[in-house]
């Protein structure tokens, strides 16, 4: 929640500065762009339980790594963007002890709205909504095996570009992702099922380049 509050404050502060015009080319229809930076995946707390094996709390740890997006503006105020990243690895605490881990890839496609699209405003906020697909791999659990099903869910996004010239900009963005997975642990030849709700806040800071 603190991350959401801080990001909202930054977003509102930047978006209020706002309509400063420059000699830069209009920011809008036909733009193809990429954004690259460091991504932090911060799952919500209390991700579930595994009562079937005597575990009352499951907590998924955060991770950070390199991420990038590729986007296209098909109208001045509307565009689409795909988020991709290197695999993230999360420790999983069972009753407070790091006893499991997994890697995942969370590609996310959003439809975006740019309120100042089509203008040369140097501050360009945007919001998006879309879908997330999460693929889990390399699952491990002490004393047995772990399998996490791939997940589909909704995603929401807020971001802002601070334009430096016709091509380069500083970028900050955040996504909320609805990630829930069915988990199966096999221990001592017996299998046990539960559901793990990860629902992370994903934050990226970096640079943007438009072609």
UniProtKB/TrEMBL annotation:
Gene Ontology CC, one term: outer membrane
InterPro entries according to UniProt: OMP/PagP_B-barrel, OMPW
Gene Ontology terms: biological process: transmembrane transport
Signal peptide interval: 1-25
Record lineage: Bacteria, Pseudomonadati, Pseudomonadota, Gammaproteobacteria, Oceanospirillales
Keywords, comma-separated and alphabetical: Signal
Domain of life: Bacteria
Pfam family, one: OmpW
Family matches, as PANTHER family: OUTER MEMBRANE PROTEIN W, PTHR36920
Organism, scientific name: Halomonas eurihalina
The protein's name: Outer membrane beta-barrel protein
